[in-house]
Design goal:
Radius of gyration: 15 Å
Distance between the termini: 37 Å
Length: about 140
């Protein structure tokens, strides 16, 4: 962790349970590890990134601008990546957490303008979450 994002980031993550990560710290804000961690670890640490993204969106609604550029971009990149869903979310995220993620994806898609998401990004997230078929796909979601 330290080699990629520095000592402060390492202190926030190494040996720290995902539920104990301080999403308001400088070390957290500097780290974008989800695509580089082992899949099981990436699934475990997705939670703090989702919480940070939701907090940033709330801040944006209240203040009119956002201050979480790096974390927002990193989290949305993961959520719009079919490879991340196939390699991390589906095999390693527990069912309860996956269901919560489906709800988060539905919410994020409703806030597409605030998040500057393209139609393609929204379609990918919804399809990966099982909420919508992709263009040209003929089988029902979930099959």
């Amino acid at each position: 962790m330290e080699w990629g994002w520095g000592e402060k980031a390492a202190r926030e993550f190494v040996g720290v349970a995902p539920s104990k990560v301080n999403i308001e710290s400088e070390g957290f804000a500097a780290a974008t590890p989800l695509l580089d961690l082992a899949p099981r670890a990436a699934a475990a640490y997705l939670g703090p990134y989702l919480l940070s993204l939701l907090a940033g969106l709330d801040f944006q609604k209240k203040v009119g601008l956002f201050d979480d550029v790096l974390i927002r971009a990193h989290t949305l990149t993961c959520l719009t990546s079919p490879e991340f869903w196939a390699g991390v979310i589906r095999p390693f995220l527990p069912n309860e957490c996956r269901q919560a993620l489906v709800e988060v994806v539905a919410y994020l898609s409703s806030e597409r303008r605030m998040l500057s998401l393209t139609d393609e990004q929204v379609e990918t997230m919804l399809a990966e979450a099982g909420l919508k078929r992709r263009s040209g796909e003929t089988k029902p979601c979930g099959e």
